Amino acid sequence: MPETSTYVDPRRWKALIFIALAQLMVVLDATIVNIALPSAQQDLGITDANRQWVITAYALAFGGLLLFGGRVADLWGRKRTFVIGLTGFAVASALGGAAANQEMLLGARALQGVFGALLAPAALSLLAVTFTEAKERAKAFGIFGAIAGGGGAVGLILGGVLTEYMNWRWTFFVNIPFAVVAATGAFLVIREPAGSRNTSRLDVPGVILATLGLVSLVYGFTRAESDGWLAGPTLGLFAAAVVLLLAFVLVESKVKAPLLPLRVVAERNRAGIYASLGLAVIGMFGLFLFLTYYLQIVKGYTPVTTGLAFLPMIVGMITGSTQIGARLMIRVRPRLLMAPGFTVAALGMLVLTQIDLDTSYPALILPGFLLMGLGMGTAFMPAMSLATHGVQPRDAGVASAMVNTSQQVGGAIGTALLNTIAASATSAYATSHAAGARSLDLLKLQAMVHGYTTAIWWAVGILALAGVIAFTFINTGRPGGVRQVASSEDGEGAAHEDEVHVPVMAH
User: Fold this and answer.
1) How far, CA to CA in Å, does 78 sit from each of 27, 157, 397?
2) What angle do CA 395, 396, 400 make, to 5 degrees?
3) CA–CA dist 327, 71 (Å, integer)
4) Which of 187, 324, 396, 399 is the most exposed place for a label (fewest CB within 10 A)?
5) Residue 329 to residue 338: CA distance in whole angstroms
6) Using one digit for the tens of pLDDT, what is the confidence trace for 374-418?
7) CA 69 – CA 236 distance, rounded (Å)
8) CA–CA distances in Å: residue 96 to residues 111, 136, 160
9) What's the sign of the alpha-carbon dihedral 493, 124, 131, 135?
10) pTM surpassing 0.70?
11) How far apart are the first and last CA of the chain?
12) 229: how many CB neighbours lie within 10 A of its CB?
């Protein structure tokens, strides 16, 4: 690939607006439907057994196809893939909002996942090849990281408002204006740098093995939540996931043009990013799930009030990402932001283990949310920037897809794992305290809160582990270094302490 001086797009900041808008839409959709689900279930007559598929259909399609989506972005071009993803996501959202029965709704959710798998890696890789100067890159990824971290909480607020004051269908229809504005802006403003595509033939065996392996893994955790960890179908799905993913690694090491070049995940900094982000999302999704139920069922908050209760966390995430992470990223090494960030988030989670039936929101929940937001925002910002650490521009799409894959799989694992832990703790508490209970309703609430706090304790440990992994694996220097490092022929440049790894592209 020819290497020249880096081209700077004069419209890059306008492009960031539309890339960030698309990312917000994708992240919102991960949580906005959750609050609307009870209303949709009643309206369409969805059974309790099929209710989970409104969430699972999206997660399976999205998580299973992300690597394929990242490779398609490298092959077709990121701008084209970005616009196709937005258009398809808008059409799928319209179908979901107009759903006349559960089959139509589930099909629309799966279709959203398919186009989301195209859109998400295209958005992040566009950002990676558009912003190459260290200070600008820090600012751009600060904004993107705040959206990636806080968008899920924004979804809870917006879902509550739309469900309470309009109806559940608007949690789907709201995506359409987002997509139209982002696609129009992308078509007019975004310019993809020349020489950054990967035109190698598509690795079809890799696509099949990766998709089936990731779907088996995500579905396995979903079945574990409903059937139990030792049930036959659960163990079978986990075994299939291991076999398929091992076969995928073997194939990728042999083929000429792999779906996931192993050089992308073998580099220790990127490996640390993917592992720590996945663990952090496990803890964060668990918090959203339990605190939503706690505030509505135990505290009696309305959907809108519940959503607004998460607002300080969003403010903390934006502050941590744009004011702390972006300002310090060019001055200190990334691990000195990520590890403390995850630790502060774990401390916020530790505060939330103290919730009880009569817990004060200002005295305990608010400080916990603020610490969570500040910590996550500070950690997410350098993580998003380092996702394409040292890769050639032709690998930017698949490297970006790995970030989304770690988050999506982490979210599925977090929901299933922590929900199972909470349910077991709740059942054990209710059984052991049944004899001395004065009121069954009171016992039910006490058992519920005990289950939540038990799961949150696990989330504290998971977040702390994310911090340890970030500190141990991520050893690249601060990105304010004196020179750029071009990737070698196999895609890896040597990492020196004070060098910045920025994609070098042709113009």
Assistant:
1) 19, 31, 8
2) 120
3) 32
4) 187
5) 10
6) 999 899 878 877 877 677 777 777 877 787 778 777 877 777 788
7) 27
8) 9, 38, 18
9) negative
10) yes
11) 11
12) 15
